[in-house]
Amino acid sequence: MTQRAAFLDTPTLVPGITRFWLIRHALVEQNARMKLYGSLDVPLCPESLIAQVPMYEALAARLPRDAVWVTTPLSRTQHTAQAIQAAGYPATEWSVESGLIEQSMGDYHGLQHHELPERLIMPAHPFWPMAADEVPPGGESMVQVLERVGEAIERLADTHDGQDIVVVSHGGAIRAATAHALGVDADTSLRLSVQNLSLTILERHPASWRVVAVNELPGI
């Protein structure tokens, strides 16, 4: 689902509410997209960094000032954060949170997409390389990702209680964070569309989580 109408309406932060602004990193380079890259550190597409400047500018204008910034250890999230700040957001240092990294595909990293199905134990998910509870050799399942990401965002919310937190992360991790907020399983989370440079907004209230927007596309 894509939220559009409220794009220019930045919600007012109420005391006791912690708000996450989750951004999926920009498009990675073409050779990486031809393979399963998961938690590998692959570069962004150089052409997209230029072509998507309007999206970076829209995100820079959309995001709250005085926010805490967080990226993952992978360069594609950090370079996306740099591009957003260069497009008009005040220069802000960020911390690195490994708990919000993408799903590890383990031994399946680097496989061509057509090479994967014959190695799977269960049928692949319609919208993900594998079923949510399949554990690739040496990797982790989306069920495990949901547990890891849930712990990370709860910890960040405790540390930065009542603040805005901008997180530049990955498609799988953002799906997992949304599933944690909704209280749904990992399989359901994989049905969400989370496009590159899209914005997902989650709030932790004293008694519950709330989903404000999912897959909001900047400037659209």
Automatic annotation (TrEMBL):
SMART domains: PGAM. GO terms for cellular component: cytoplasm. Gene3D superfamilies: Phosphoglycerate mutase-like (3.40.50.1240). InterPro entries: His_Pase_superF_clade-1 (IPR013078), His_PPase_superfam (IPR029033), PGM_Phosphatase (IPR050275). Transmembrane segments: none annotated. CDD domains: HP_PGM_like (cd07067). Pfam families: His_Phos_1 (PF00300). This is Histidine phosphatase family protein. It comes from Lichenicola cladoniae.
